[in-house]
Predict the 3D structure of the following.
Amino acid sequence: NAGVTQTPKFRILKIGQSMTLQCAQDMNHNYMYWYRQDPGMGLKLIYYSVGAGITDKGEVPNGYNVSRSTTEDFPLRLELAAPSQTSVYFCASSPGRATGELFFGEGSRLTVL
Amino acid sequence: GQQLNQSPQSMFIQEGEDVSMNCTSSSIFNTWLWYKQDPGEGPVLLIALYKAGELTSNGRLTAQFGITRKDSFLNISASIPSDVGIYVCAGAVRGSTLGRLYFGRGTQLTVWP
């Protein structure tokens, strides 16, 4: 069972570069989320989606964009990378009505130099 | 954003000992969840609680939803080496904006054989 798959696992970017973190889930979940986890801090919600074509901002959306063209995929786009975006990014999904029971990917560690 | 405070920040115990940790919030939650995060992995759901006063077990793990709805507790009985990891609490207000799940910083558990 693949569950939630994130790519890449590691990436180093230069300041000002752009990139897309990919997230795919094979559980037919409607709800998908992107979180970032900074050292010693709790997960912070960046963006979320309740279904294909519907996205909304979370707690820390600045500097990021998302799209949801299919149920399976929820890519996160970083434009003009900044050192403050150095973090571990987690994609998650949940079935049906959002209950907090999230299934997480393994994470993508991004360093911006 | 909401602040969830977990204590203790870290614990060092001997195999076979029982463990207790807690999570408090400045706000009332309708849902409390406990996740475990291993190094280099995403969090995995352990227990979900949906009702004040609820006590739920998952094997050697028992979690309680505090009566005030501002706290939750997790106990691990007869700890074993594979219990090592970071235990993360999360809270949500059901019926509010979807995706608004707030996470604590985690309790790092080390188990000595």
In short: The first strand of chain B starts at residue 4 and ends at 7.
